[in-house]
């Protein structure tokens, strides 16, 4: 009985074990099941980034800037930047514009760039805000490239009233020194800005202003201007004719450029006018003063009064440093007591060219220019002789229609500025009378 019971239990145990083996997968089945369970359709796969990380851009080597100093040369500047004369020679001789690098001026910037080993690979010559020349090392040596920028041009106007001097009035009106001198040059054949301006004179300008990156860079050309001297008004308009030549003309098309400037210096004060009977301040004798003395600080520029040729340039005990200029067959101008001469005998000069600077050489009591004007060998008063000179050049009739059309708008603008100034001065005068 017990034996039968034991055999039955054993049979049941063996049957249960067999069923568990059948239910358990084999190793191969487990692997297959695992693959089937983990594989998914392509569209269900998580997106994979197939691109490698973008490498960081190489950092540009820094630039070292050197400001050109007075008395500098390329060797000194390169040496301060850590480079030698061999580098100077390579940049100057290998690049097309290399010789231009030798023409440097105080205030300009020379920038240098080297590689990791310290070799010079690039140079920049920053001439001004608008022009930079770049020199870059390549397989064939240094090459050059000029980079230029164009400023934005805006039109502005200014009004000035003379209270003490033209220069101070121009400064008060917000004009640069260059624009004031440009205006003096425009009217230099009809107004002597040394002796003619009087208190109450007015000037009006319409001119260009140049901007770069939203900031004013400089003044540009004068478009139109007027100057009222002791009640007489002179006007000038900038005009480019059909030949491409640019000049200034009055409203009738007559050129503002005369044969001679009325004053051959920056406007200062006249210390002595034409006087044939004056007593010489050094020799104390009655020596004719056949000219005009313009008192001015030493170094003040002296201009050629007109186009001509230098017939004498030298030094004498009485004249100091002097220059004589022949203008055509009839006229000679003389410039005495110069500090320095800027032209040589035989040289051709043009009107308004700087020929020297004011000084006190020779028989001079102080810094001034002594200026003489001779017509057919006879001394003439340079402040009045212009009235006897030939008439100024006028635009041909074929240009007049285009000229009138080109100045119409700016002429109206100029007239409006004068009207506003006259009204303001009249109101100021009335208020002063009531006071």
TrEMBL record:
Domain Csd3-like second N-terminal: 158-276
Record's keyword annotation contains Magnesium: no
Limits of the M23ase beta-sheet core domain: 288-382
Cellular location(s): Cell envelope
UniProt cross-references to InterPro entries, sorted A to Z: Cell_wall_metabolism_enzyme (IPR050570), Csd3_N2 (IPR045834), Dup_hybrid_motif (IPR011055), M23ase_b-sheet_dom (IPR016047), NMB0315-like_N (IPR054512)
Record's keyword terms, sorted: Hydrolase, Metal-binding, Metalloprotease, Protease, Zinc
Pfam families noted in UniProt: Csd3_N2 (PF19425), NMB0315_dom_I (PF22310), Peptidase_M23 (PF01551)
Protein name (Swiss-Prot/TrEMBL): Peptidoglycan DD-metalloendopeptidase family protein
Naturally occurring in which organism (per UniProt): Pseudohalioglobus sediminis
């Amino acid at each position: 009985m017990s034996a039968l019971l034991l055999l039955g239990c054993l049979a049941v145990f063996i049957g249960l074990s067999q069923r568990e083996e059948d239910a358990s997968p084999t190793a191969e089945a487990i692997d297959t099941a695992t693959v089937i369970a983990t594989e998914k359709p392509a569209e269900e796969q998580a997106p994979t980034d197939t691109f490698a990380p973008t490498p960081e851009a190489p950092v540009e080597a820094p630039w070292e800037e050197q400001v050109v100093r007075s008395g500098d040369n390329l060797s000194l500047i390169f040496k301060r930047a850590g480079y030698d004369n061999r580098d100077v020679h390579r940049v100057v001789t290998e690049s097309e514009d290399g010789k231009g690098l030798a023409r440097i001026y105080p205030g300009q910037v020379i920038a240098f760039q080297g590689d990791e080993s310290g070799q010079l690979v690039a140079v920049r010559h920053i001439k001004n805000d608008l022009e930079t020349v770049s020199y870059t090392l390549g397989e064939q040596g240094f090459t050059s490239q000029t980079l230029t920028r164009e400023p934005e041009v805006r039109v502005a106007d200014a009004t000035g009233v003379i209270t003490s001097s033209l220069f101070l009035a121009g400064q008060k009106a917000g004009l640069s020194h260059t624009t004031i001198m440009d205006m003096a040059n425009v009217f230099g054949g009809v107004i002597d800005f040394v002796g003619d301006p009087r208190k109450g004179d007015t000037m009006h300008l319409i001119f260009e202003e140049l901007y770069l990156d939203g900031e004013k860079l400089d003044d540009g050309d004068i478009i139109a201007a007027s100057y009222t001297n002791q009640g007489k008004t002179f006007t000038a308009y900038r005009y480019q004719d059909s030949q491409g030549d640019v000049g200034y003309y009055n409203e009738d098309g007559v050129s503002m450029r005369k044969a001679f400037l009325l004053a051959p210096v920056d406007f200062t004060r006249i210390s002595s006018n034409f006087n044939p009977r004056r007593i010489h301040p050094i020799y104390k004798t009655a020596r004719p003063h056949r000219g005009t003395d313009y008192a001015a600080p030493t170094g003040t520029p002296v201009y050629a009064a007109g186009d001509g040729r230098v017939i004498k340039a030298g030094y004498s005990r009485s004249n100091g440093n002097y220059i004589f200029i022949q203008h055509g067959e009839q006229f000679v101008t003389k410039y005495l007591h110069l500090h320095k001469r800027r032209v040589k005998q035989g040289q051709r000069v043009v009107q308004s060219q700087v020929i020297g600077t004011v000084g006190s050489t020779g028989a001079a009591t102080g810094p001034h220019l002594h200026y003489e004007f001779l017509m057919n060998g006879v001394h003439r008063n340079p402040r009045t002789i212009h009235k006897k000179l030939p008439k100024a050049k006028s635009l041909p009739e074929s240009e007049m229609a285009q000229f009138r059309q080109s100045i119409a708008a700016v002429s109206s603008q100029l007239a409006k500025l004068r009207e506003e100034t006259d009204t303001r001065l009249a109101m100021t005068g009335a208020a002063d009378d009531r006071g």
